[in-house]
Amino acid sequence: MINYPNGQPYKKEEKKRSSKKNKTEISISSANRGMSFENDINVSNDYYKERGICLISKRPTPINVVKVDYSKGAMITHAYFETQSTTDYNGVYKGKYIDFEAKNTKNKTSFPLNNITKHQIEHLKMVIYHEGIAFFIIQFESLDKVYLLDASYVIHFYEHGERKSIPLSCFEENGIEVERSYNPRLKYIDAIDKKYF
Amino acid sequence: MINYPNGQPYKKEEKKRSSKKNKTEISISSANRGMSFENDINVSNDYYKERGICLISKRPTPINVVKVDYSKGAMITHAYFETQSTTDYNGVYKGKYIDFEAKNTKNKTSFPLNNITKHQIEHLKMVIYHEGIAFFIIQFESLDKVYLLDASYVIHFYEHGERKSIPLSCFEENGIEVERSYNPRLKYIDAIDKKYF
Q1: In B, which residues are within 8 Å of A95 by CB distance?
Q2: First-last CA distance in chain A
Q3: What is the pLDDT of residues B162-197, one digit of tens each?
Q4: Which residue of chain B comes nearest to A74, CA vs CA?
Q5: Residues 6+ away with beta carbon under 8 Å from B29
Q6: pLDDT for the residue A23
Q7: Would you kindly state where each structural domain of chain A is located, as residue ranges?
């Protein structure tokens, strides 16, 4: 049985809906699955934080505030989302600085790099230079697999790869598979221990 | 001569204006000085980042987005600022996790803790537990002095202090004075080196 990223069995209704090939619905469904993966990371962070295992959190999305209405209790009435120039997550584990980006892909054979920005690559290079621990957590949704891959591989493929993608084989050979459980949903600290400690 | 936090000589016009004791003007001026101190930290971070000394940045202010108008290119039309439940700054220096809060005070004899939230204290306790480096950078604006003080002192006074403030003497005895320069404006990495490395 194929499981959803949230560990729930694949529901027939959902399957039926996406088989309609209605473009809007497919894209919403895909966004939801991405959101669900992000949510898995967030609730895993909460789990780790509550149990004193590590302290890692999501950086707020930077927002460019243009106008604030103070007559309405500092209500923002005009603002724009800004592109994150760093990664989404950072924090501390065993005294070490941890920095990572989490991405979901529907692709079965490679992870496309078109969602990764030049700024993020530069940021991760600096993290490595300063001896922090930098990696990606990539969910191959269609394969129901999640890998932790050191950022150095991503940087390599971003800068020297012929195609703008990382083949699945790179994850299989150099990555650490992140196991799922009921709680935490993604046992990524186990993967960090295997790789870095 | 008394210097402004930004290193510029104290301007007579500013002095005259604040002597009017117009409440609005005083509060704007005070907000500006606070902003100027924040700006000193931010440009010092840029300096350190560009020179490969450390990688420390300001966390974006969390914003609760209520409504987005997609017909206007994802313009946020209704949102609110949220209280930061962590500190303002974090990053990596020599592999170690760095986490701090920066505050300005006009007070001459103590640093009042009414601007520090319970959430921030809890956050800093967790950083220390996970062996990260946690501190405050406090500017005593009227004294033209800036100190780095380990978060453990702030936690102690927050939880056990009789008055909700930290006396200046605690900074003088246990803090490290942060020197100013043209570039970086606040040499806080020197203070980190003295205290932690």
Answers
A1: 96-97, 130-132
A2: 34
A3: 878 999 999 999 999 999 999 999 999 999 999 999
A4: B80
A5: B14, B17, B18
A6: 42
A7: 12-196
Interface predicted TM-score (ipTM): 0.80
Predicted confidence (pLDDT) at residue B22 exceeds the cutoff of 70: no
Considering the domain delimited by B22-196, tell me its CATH architecture: 3-Layer(aba) Sandwich (3.40)
- The shortest C-alpha distance from B105 to chain A (Å) reads 24
pLDDT number for residue B28: 46
CB contact under 8 A, B74 and A81: yes
Residue located via tokens 């989490």: A102
A12-196 CATH? 3.40.1350.10
In 3-state terms, what secondary structure has residue B166?
A: strand
User: The dihedral of CA B82, B83, B84, B85: what is its sign?
Assistant: negative
**pLDDT exceeds 80 at position B10:** no
Asked whether the beta carbons of B113 and B164 are under 8 A apart, the reply is yes
Q: Among A57, A77, A92, select the one facing B97 at the smallest CB separation.
A: A92
As given in the structure block, the two tokens for residue B9 are: 């000589």
Instruction: Say if the Cβ atoms of A63 and B59 lie within 8 Å.
Output: no
Nearest to B63 among A60, A127, A130 (CB): A60
Question: Quick check: B136 pLDDT over 90?
Answer: yes
Closest CA to A6 of A49, A39, A42, A47: A39
Cβ neighbours of B60 in A, within 8 Å: 59-63
Residues 6+ apart with CB under 8 A from A12: none
The values of phi and psi at residue B134, to 5°, are: -125, 130
Cβ contact (<8 Å) for A132 and B95? yes
Average pLDDT over residues A95-117: 95
